[in-house]
């Protein structure tokens, strides 16, 4: 399967996505794959990067979760949130 096939898949029929993932899992031998600078641009973001982590090849201890308990809607966090919303094209924010 050609990796470009994944970009051509419409949102509903994702069976091919599963087949592509199985192919990828069998093809790469490492614990991770960073996909950047694909020869064909993606439908949504030409500069995007993707990181695939092969979960059955990584120990559970490889992941840790840190929670920032500061409110997002205050001070510089609100500024960053509004900047991000503008960057990704969100025009209306409710409750702010």
Describe this structure in words.
This protein is of the alpha+beta class. It has a domain of 56 residues. Helix content is 32%, strand content 8%. It contains three helices and two strands; from the N terminus they run H-H-E-E-H. A two-stranded antiparallel sheet has the order 1-2. The longest helix is centred in the first third of the chain and has 13 residues. The chain starts with a helix and ends in a 9-residue tail after the last helix. The model has no long low-confidence stretch (mean pLDDT 75).
Write the layout of secondary structure elements.
Elements: H1 4-8, H2 15-27, E1 32-35, E2 50-53, H3 75-87
Antiparallel strand pairs: 1-2
């Amino acid at each position: 399967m050609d990796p470009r096939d994944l970009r051509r898949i419409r949102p509903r029929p994702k069976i091919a996505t599963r087949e592509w993932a199985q192919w990828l899992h069998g093809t790469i031998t490492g614990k991770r794959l960073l996909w950047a600078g694909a020869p064909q641009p993606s439908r949504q973001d030409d500069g995007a990067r993707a990181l695939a982590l092969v979960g059955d090849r990584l120990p559970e201890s490889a992941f840790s979760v840190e929670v920032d308990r500061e409110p997002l809607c205050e001070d510089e966090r609100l500024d960053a949130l509004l900047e991000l919303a503008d960057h990704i094209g969100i025009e209306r924010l409710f409750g702010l």
